Structure formats: structure tokens, C-alpha cells
Amino acid sequence: MTEYEKMLAGLDYDGGDYYINKIKHLAYQAQQRINHAVSVEQAQQELRSLMTLGQGCWITPPFHCEFGRHIEMGEHCFLNMGVTMLDGARITLGRNVMVGPNCQFYTASHSLDYHQRRNWQTMCRPIVVEDDVWIGGSVVIAQGITIGRGAVIAANSTVTRDVEPLTLMAGSPARCIRRLEIGESVEVCGR
């Protein structure tokens, strides 16, 4: 099994692997074109070549990721400027997801044992954001997290455990502030 296959399977892998770094370099080059595009439309076209985007998605540069190819967004998602996605595992956003500026999605983590970290040993777990979620600015989402449909994550929160549908989460680490009523849920219309 290659280091890349180990990464996608959620196993420990060598983060310094040549092939993995080659793919990251291609993504880096695409991000340079995205983040220095002469028009927003040109940036959107480059983004569509980097990742899987549903109809009506909009990403405001600058945007940063490791691979791009492991990111998938449903229809009518919006990412504000400065979003970072460490996509060593899949990052999946459902339909009508809104993400505030400077949010960070981390599928990667490292061992607490410094001997293993010396070799760049890394493990990745996917992140899933279900339909109609609103993530406020500067939120950090840790590896392996699922955020349920219609949830709202308050600005500056750190999400370290799964989020139930229709809940308002806030804090670091994020905790449930209250359940949301259907009438209060965020309905994101197509842009």
C-alpha cells in the first residue's frame, strides 16, 4: 500500500512522501492561479478544475488547500475569503452551506508521541458538513467531524466533536448553546 493510499484510508502515513508532495505541489500551483487571478470569474474556473463543486457554488479568494481533489461541495455553497482546507481525507460539504472568512478544516493530525512526529507521521479522517449549515468566521473544525443538517457554528468556535442537526454551537471547544426550531433554521438560497 502506498503512503497516499494509507492517507486516504485513514492510516498512519509518511507526510514527507514524494508522491504526496508532488500532488500538493500541483494544488499549490493551482492556488497561485486562483489567488492571483485577474477576475473573480477566472478564479472560479480554476477552482472548478481543482475540486468538485456543485452548481452555483462560490468561493472568494484567497483559498488554501493541500490537495483540492479530496474536496466536494454540493449546490449553492459559499466560502468567504481565507478558508483553509487540509484535505488529506475527504472534506464534503452538502448543499447550501455557508462558510465565513478564515475558517479552517483540518482532516490531519499527528501522534502525541514526539518520536512518531519526528518522521512526520500523520493520520487523516474525513470531515462532513451536511446541508444548510452556517459556519461563522474563524471557526476551526477538527478531523473526523460531522456537522448535522441546519446547524449553526458561531464565529471563533473550535469544533472537536460531532454536531447534531439543528443546533447552535459556540465556544472553544464548541458546545451546544441550544436546539434550533425549524422556523429559525438558516435557509440559504441559491446565489
TrEMBL record:
InterPro entries: Hexapep, Hexapep_transf_CS, Hexapeptide_acetyltransf, Trimer_LpxA-like_sf. Gene3D superfamilies: Hexapeptide repeat proteins (2.160.10.10). The keyword Membrane does not apply. GO terms for cellular component: cytosol. It holds the Pfam family Hexapep. It comes from the Bacteria. The keyword Repeat applies. Keywords: Acyltransferase, Nodulation, Repeat, Transferase. GO terms for molecular function: O-acyltransferase activity. Acetyltransferase implicated in the O-acetylation of Nod factors. Belongs to the transferase hexapeptide repeat family. This is Nodulation protein L. It comes from Ferrimonas sediminum.
